[in-house]
Amino acid sequence: MNMWMPTELEKYGVALASFRGTVPHGLPLEIGDTVQILERCEGWYRGFVLKNPNVKGIFPACYIHLKNAHIKNKGQFETVIPTEDSVITEMTSTLREWGAMWKQLYVKNEGDLFHRLWHVMNEVLDLRRQVLVGHLTQDRMRDVKQHITARLDWGNEQLGLDLVPRKEFAMVDPDEISVTELYSLMEHRHRKKDAPAPASTHHLFAQVKSLMSSNLGEDLDVFFTIYDGRENRPLSERFFVRLNKQGVPKSPEKTEKQCTLFVDLGSSDLRKDVYIVVHIIRIGRMGAGEKKNANSTQYRRPFGCALVSVADLLTADHKDDHLLKVYTCNTESEWYQIHENIIRKVNSRYNLSGSNAGLAVSLQLLHGDIEQIRREYMALFTRGIAITKKLGFSDIIMPGEMRNDLYVTLERGEFEKGGKSVARNVEVTVCVLDADGLVLKGSVWAGSGESGADEYHSIVLYHNNSPRWAEQIKLPLPVDKFRGSHMRFEFRHCSTKDKGEKKLFGFSFVPLMQEDGRTLPDGTHELIVHKCEENTSLQDCARYLKLPFSKGNLPGNNQAAKGSKESFWITSFLCSTKLTQNGDMLDLLKWRAHPEKISDSLSKLKEIDGSEIVKFLQDTLDTLFGILDESSQRYGLKVFDCLVHIINLLQDSKFQHFKPVMDTYIESHFAGALSYRDLIKVLKWYVDRIVDAEHQDHIQQVLKASEYIFKYIIQSRRLYALATGGQNEDEFRCCVRELFMSLRFFLSQESRVGSPIAQTQVVFLRTFPSVYSELLKIFAVREVASFVRETLGSLSAAARADCPLEPVKLQCIARTVESPLYTNPESRCILLPVVLHLLQAHLQEQRDLVMCSRILSSMFSLIKKEEVGSPVSEEVDVIVRSLLGVLLRTILEITNRPQPTGNGNAPRLQFQDVTGEFVACLLALLRQMTEKHYQQLLDSLSNKEDLRDFLLQIFTVFRILIRPEMFPKDWTVMRLVTNNVIITTVLYLSDALRKNFLNEKFDYKVWDSYFYLSVIFINQPCLQLEMFSPSKRKKILEKYGDMRVMMGCEIFSMWQNLGEHKLNFIPAMIGPFLEVTLVPQPDLRNVMIPIFHDMMDWEHRRSGNFKQVEAKLIDKLDSLMSEGKGDETYRELFNSIIPLFGPYPSLLKKIERETWRESGVSLIATVTRLMERLLDYRDCMKAVEVDGKKIGCTVSLLNFYKTELNKEEMYIRYIHKLYDLHLKAQNYTEAAYTLLLYDELLEWSDRPLREFLNYPMQTEWQRKEYLHLTIVQNFDRGKCWENGIILCRELADQYEAYYDYRNLSKMRMMEASLYDKIMDQQRLEPEFFRVGFYGKKFPFFLRNKEFVCRGHDYERLEAFQQRMLNEFPHAIAMQHVNLPDDTITQAEAQYLQIYAVTPIPEAQDVLQRDGVPDSIKSFYKVNHIWRFRYDRPFHKGTKDKENEFKSLWVERTTLTLVQSLPGISRWFEVEKRELMEVSPLENAIEVLENKNLQLRGLIAQCQARHPHSVSPLTMCLNGVIDAAVNGGLARYQEAFFGKDYAASHPEDGEKIGRLRELMFEQAHILEYGLALHEKVVPQDMRPLHKKLVDQFHLMKSSLGIQELPAYVHASPVPFTNGSPRICRNSLSNVISPDGGRIVARRSPLSYPAGNRYSSSSLSSQASNEVSNITGQSESSDEVFNMQPSPSTSSLSSNHSASPNVTSSAPSSARGSPLLSDKHKHSRENSCLSPRDRPCSAIYPNPPEPPQRILPHLMGESSLPRSEPNLSAPDRGSPARNLRSLSPVPIPIARSPQKNCVPPLTPSPTECQPGGLVSNSPALSGSYSSGISSLSRCSVSDASGLEAPPAGEPAPLTSSVSSGSDELLRRENKTPPPYSVYERTNARRPVPLPHSLSIPPSAAPLSLPPALPPKPHQLRPAKLDSDPRRADHVPRPRPLPRKVSQL
């Protein structure tokens, strides 16, 4: 069997296909994975995928494509680096990283960047393929790599990745280059990314598309030119395009003929007044409208002109199509200046050629030099696009540029009529003839774009003897053709007759070159027009060439020609690199022919234009050195001056590119072997005269040219030595030394500011460094270095800071350091002292920092890490001694300067610019330092003070380097290098700290600086490896390791050395060390956590407690975790400190040890609990939207700070955080309650308060006033006006006490407005929901707790449940209401249990009062609620199948909260849960009470507003009567009136009597209601009314009622306000959960939940309401014979309600989740037989509207109890479509109360209200299940109060002692309305409001007989003898004094 063998060459490869790895030890591979191969065996490899090196396995060798690789650290820990192009490597790794992030962009819905990145990735992949193929040329490869790196940088920037430092497109290794070089690379790439340098050269691309015009029909010539509107001259030659008769180019297939590139435009040419001007010439007949005739002659005639400003193209970065308007001139004589008229907008001289005429062109500006344009737009040049040149040379003349163009413009002419009556039509024909008289073929160009022609025909201006053409032509002639050639202009008259002849009448000519060799001068020339006959032959040009051609050159005696009226003007302009128009230049070049002119020619050379000199540079130099060789004594000084002039001419930016031409001349063509002697002699002569010369200008020019003078000297000496074998070497060296002695003497002169010598010294120092390289060609390196050192050392050191020489010195030093001379180690050691001396002087004075940083960067870039040897080590030692201290001081100085304000993208200021450079220099120096250097440095610090100052200084600088703003955020490479240097230096310096500053020499400041530096080092964002991608993390760990752990270990080590000095850092270092432990690095935490144990130990030794530690820990934890630090693991780790509190070594300290452990554990437990809340808070705050989690978490933290930690400031901070959350969520009421917490901490005093949060410095009174006003405003916005009134009153009292009547008035008006809002505006009653959070995945403040939540407006159970599931998307909704067991509470999951609950109001006295409007009562129904109720039905004992109501009980759960709702949160935790059971009989009583209550309310409503309130009454009557007829109430009689029930329940006698009484009451109410209904029912509902009357009689007869008992009619007096009222004695509450507490039976407005909440929608409720009141229970079995079956209802049953009925929450909001879904909707129930019909069908009500509006038209129509026998026909709601009658209205109250039910109880001042009960949610208008009627009883009602004896009328007085009222209030713990604070105020008697009573005179309708009061049988004081229920002792709550306690 073969063995696995390590591979030698097969180390790196790429997977060609995916491999599943199904074999044993197989390694799964995906296509494209890069693998590192470790071993090989029989066609298999063993290795790992590079992205996951921890997993190793085997894979087939055939699946791998091997690649060459370089191996580092060969062996077990070897690293493989592919040897491919570094750009390819970077592309591969970058694309992999982008791929993962690209997918995340899709997930985050960042579509724009997603698609852009996708395109760039595809582009990079395509370029990568091109590079891999390897078929590209070097230039193309460079372009591709540049394109790739640009794309990679763009993508990295968009994705927030790091900036990659590159050198020639390849990534650099920071360890391979110096830090200064790394910084310069990063800075270069950063600046390149920020602001690309603007291009100085521009080009304009133009393409002609077509000309659109209505009057075409002839060919067209179109000329483009760039025109300067400011100087009124063309800037470019013309571009020429021919168009056909259709207005499109003649050769559409040849696109190059339609396009041109106007080249070499300067930045100054891109102005608004520079235009692209287009002239259009038509080719055809003389007149545009002439008819075709025999004349076929074609003329060039003006057509139109168009233009566009170049500035309009600057903003476009792509080709833009333009439609240029075409204008024509009004008179042809203005044609020559039509473009100027258009520019100047002289409208009278031109007009639009046609509304639809336009020239379509495409224009684009291109930027960069022409070579760059060639590369980027290669397609343009391959097609041969026409190049349109600039007139004259460009701003920069390039050597080798060949150009020989003569531009001639036909300006104008003056001609005579020639005997004709009209002016001539003149055409000019231009041609060029050579010396032999032959026409030069193709020499006349009308413009670029078309080839040259033999001759050119001008345009013809009709009948014009003074034509002005302004046509430009170009003559691109070879140089050799200029001599002897001339231009001839022939003038012809174009006849318009039939023949159309062109008759010659004259000509002009001009020679192109003068006899002396000069070409035609630039400018305008007036030519003579020579007359000739029509048939004259001009073939023999010799005949006329002897004639004069220009009037300017005529001799004085030729008056005939001068007096001629005919002239022709042209303008010429020569643009040539070979020809000259300058005679002086020609004289100098021909010096040998005219030796007598040498002196003058040399003198005039300085006056010749520079462009003429550079044309003939080599010839001129040869001339000068030729003269020097032949006549050095005579002309030596002049030749030297001319040479200096030419050298300095090349310094001009226009000619600087000719320096290489001169360099080439010196190297290849210069032959003056003897010239060096004369050059040195003259140069020395000038230098020696510097000190004494008054005028230094010429000497400065000489020194400025010294570089090239030395080049000529050195080259001349080399040529001489080569020719002579090195003769006279000593003489030459001696001359050079003498020259340098003169220079040193000149430099040593002390210069005064403004003195000429100082300026001359400046000039020399600027050019001196350029001499080094020339000297090195002859002298040895050390010799040249000595020259330089002595020369620079001779500079005067006493210069002042304002001397101009100082910055130039540094510039000279900088160029010296950057020169090859300094690069050589031999010379560097000679130059280094003088360089350091100058640097140190400038740095100490903080002068010229930019140049200093440049010098330092150059110095350190030469010292590479691997070069650290003996010479380099000595250099580092010298630099450290000289510069380290001053470098540290410089960094501190420049970083402490004020930072500039303004735009962050603005360029950094100068001192900021150098910060990075100095930092890089410091890092480079520290990186070169070894242990030996550190030791020498520390030894050099002689005393302790110096060492202390140095350590403080360097620690401070390191803290500065760690700042985030030190480097741009994407400079991670630079930051890592910085941190590596810092930690290395700190490790070296920590020993010095331990040795010199411990024990008696302890120095707190140094140690504190050390620890502070260590902490911020560890917490740097760039070291948090957990935040990086795996690949980036791997690279950092491989290169540097985890530097946080290294520093953490160093902190621990140094802490252990402190000993008793640790106390100096407690508690100061608790916060910083805590911040370190929050870093999620396990090793670091394990190192740092024991330090806390040590701190607590020492703190306990010192003070015996941990108060300081605790305070610091808590403050720091809050601030850090708010910033997002810390995690769950950290909490667990911190908790692990508890085991560290082990025993003390000494047994004698046992008691102290126990105390220490107990308090330590307590502290850690407190901190851990705080941490749990802080972690929850941080996690919740990550969400964008404000939800319940955020608010609940903040409340939890707020309460923790108040109750457990008692930290008032933190408490107040979180109050305001909670306040802001509430405002953002528009929870205005909760926001007001929250701010009230802070308000209550303040007093009405003048104590001054400091500035805090957003509050200014002010008194306590002012802040409390401001808070009061803000709270009132929020109560107002939250419609909680009653609470606002209380605060208004308090504030008004303060104003009154201070006599501030102005504000008092405002406050009273505000209070009045709040009262108005209570009465006028609508308020929605919220729903309440109980929510249980079960499972360990919930946040700590929610985990396994139950809350009651106040819902939002219009929010029902389904919406609330969905909202909670959205807030907790991982939660599971529980489908039952049972309390969960441990399997749920301890599960690693989230469970939500949600159902609706009913509030139990506290303010019963307000709710029971007569005459209080509903808009007032509605507030007390849903505010200040502590307790809530939920009912669940169940069967106890054997269930009677015939009558389920016998065994149907209700389990009533009462929840008590820790705080009342509403409060500082929308939800509060349940503090106490109580259970009680309601018997079947009690349930039946509740059902009938609520149904009677509803009937009375609807009757009262109908009495008050009968036109609008008939339908609800109709439906209710129909439901009750129909159900009773069908045997509904019989079930109650059957269940409870039988002998068996009375025998088995003797204690229920009173309750049975009460049930009987309610049956009598209901029968009479129905009779009264039918009588009223008959009066108000609409006509179309009469049949229904008749049916109801018949059924009611049937019901009475079926129940055996012939007439009502006497006591039913005991009081003939009708209701005072429309319904009966009677007063009873107060009895015990029969079914009250409060047990024996005396509770008054409430009015219909008692409870807010009465018509809102139904805890259950179960239809199995046995709420049969007995209508058969016979008093003889024996007959019940005969009368009631229907057998309803028990039924259930679903949690999700949902019903709607009539808009006229005040509705409750949907039954689903109250449904019991316990029962099955058998009957989910009451509509299903209507189809069942009486036996199967659910109990919810007893008393159906109209469907409910979506939400209750408080000021509703309806009465307080309580939800009817669901009786068992409701007939199916009632479900049709016949009253829905009733038409209302309009009888005479009854006067009613005008206030928009919620209902108009007249209270059926006495006034609140009577003993106890005994009206109809409205304490149950059964009063809602939904098809709720039967159990809902009893389950929604918030407090079971007492039967009533004692009444007068039978036969006496019920008292109607409104007077009863207020004592009983106060007693009730005290028992109910309910404050009177609006008087939260005023407990002692006497209550005023409240008379019955007149608006609630109906005066007899106001009712024109004959009302039915009065509804008698309820049966008034006496009730025993104690009816509740049920031993099954324990008495309920209410939660004792004192009357709150503050709104926040309500």
Description:
The chain has 1942 residues and is an alpha+beta fold. 41% of the residues lie in helices and 13% in strands. The strands form ten sheets. Strands 1, 2, 3, 4, 5 and 6 form a six-stranded antiparallel sheet that branches. It has a six-stranded antiparallel β-barrel with strand order 34-35-40-39-38-37. Strands 18-21-11-15-22 form a five-stranded mixed sheet, with no helix packed on it. Strand 7 and strand 8 (79-82) form a beta hairpin. Helix 20 runs parallel beside helix 23, helix 27 runs parallel beside helix 29 (910-928) and helix 51 (1480-1504) packs parallel to helix 55 (1549-1576). The longest helix has 32 residues, at 1150-1181. The chain is extended and about 160 Å long. The relative contact order is 0.04.
